[in-house]
Amino acid sequence: SYELTQPPSVSVSPGQTASITCSGDKLGDKYASWFQQKPGQSPVLVVYLDTKRPSGIPERFSGSKSGNTATLTIGGTQATDEADYYCQAWDSSFWVFGGGTKLTVL
Amino acid sequence: EVQLVQSGAEVKKPGESLKISCKGSGYRFASSWIGWVRQMPGKGLEWMGIIYPDDSDTRYSPSFQGQVTISADTSVTTAYLQWSSLKASDSAMYYCARRGDYGFYFDHWGQGTVVTVSS
């Protein structure tokens, strides 16, 4: 079955740039999406189709992809960005989520 | 405004059946795929399956095939997730989510339904 791999945790200082990676076999041939989930809340889409940002999502959230690794970048990280982040892709009729990355802003 | 409103928390005993719901509004319900996602306590998101309400075309994750049934009723713009015989390991938060218009991603999510299975 298809798998997406994320680092379990990433730490960043306020105002700095945070990068969260997501790797998978032939991910370069698929589209990646990213979701933010804060404690006790439903996931929220922050990036789709690798690089697109939904309306209402701050510009400091951006997505990119190089080879088989997608990256979510948060520029000028704020305390409110502390959350779990999940990547997601679609492979042969199946939807797959990465294991999630806990972003700590300290 | 697109909204997905899920049914309330459930407490069940092992072996009981259960059907939870997800009511869509603010868009053409029949023509947007609706998926279900499980999140066990303290764990990540797991895709369970997805349905196209217009023709009930349904796909299941291999991990959940045969364990749950996904259905939809376009007359009440509602999707369902059901179990015929619950296990303690089914205790989790369950989210419904709508597939986005331009690809394979979920653009709107329900508020979640907590299911607790305990004797």
Explain what this protein looks like in three dimensions.
The complex is a heterodimer of chains A (106) and B (119). Chain A is an all-beta fold. Helices cover 0% and strands 47% of the residues of chain A. Chain A contains no helices and nine strands. In chain A, the strands form two sheets. In chain A, strands 1, 3, 4, 7, 8 and 9 form a six-stranded mixed β-sheet that branches. In chain A, strands 2-6-5 form a three-stranded antiparallel β-sheet, with no helix packed on it. In chain A, a hairpin with a 2-residue loop joins strand 7 and strand 8. The mean pLDDT of chain A is 96. Chain B is mainly beta. Chain B has strands at residues 3-6, 10-12, 18-25, 34-39, 45-52, 57-60, 69-73, 78-83, 92-99, 106-109, 113-117. In chain B, the strands form two sheets. In chain B, strands 2, 4, 5, 6, 9, 10 and 11 form a seven-stranded mixed β-sheet that branches. In chain B, a hairpin with a 4-residue loop joins strand 7 and strand 8.
Dominant shape of chain A: globular
Largest two-chain interface: A-B, 25 and 24 residues
Task: Give the helix level of chain A as a range of percent.
Answer: under 10%
Shape of chain B: globular
**What is the rounded Rg of chain A?**
13 Å
Q: How many strands appear in the DSSP assignment of chain B?
A: 11
**Low-pLDDT segments of chain A:** none
Largest sheet geometry of chain A: 6 strands, mixed
- Tell me the series of helices and strands of chain A, N- to C-terminal: EEEEEEEEE
Sheet-strand content of chain B, in percent, reads over 45%
Which sheet architecture does the biggest sheet of chain B show?
A: 7 strands, mixed
User: Helix-strand pattern of chain B, N to C?
Assistant: EEEEEEEEEEE
- Kindly name the structural category of chain A: mainly beta
